[in-house]
Amino acid sequence: AEGVAGEVGRDVGRTFPRIPLFASSTAKGAQGRAVLYAVLLEFVRLCPDVGYCQGVNFVAAALMALDSAPDGAGAMRLRRRTPAAVTWLLVALARRFSMADLWGPDLPRLHVITYQLSALIKRHLPGLSAHLSAIGLGLEVLAAQWLIPLFSSLLPELGP
Question: What are 20-46's pLDDT values in tens digits?
Answer without folding.
Answer: 888 888 888 899 999 999 999 999 999
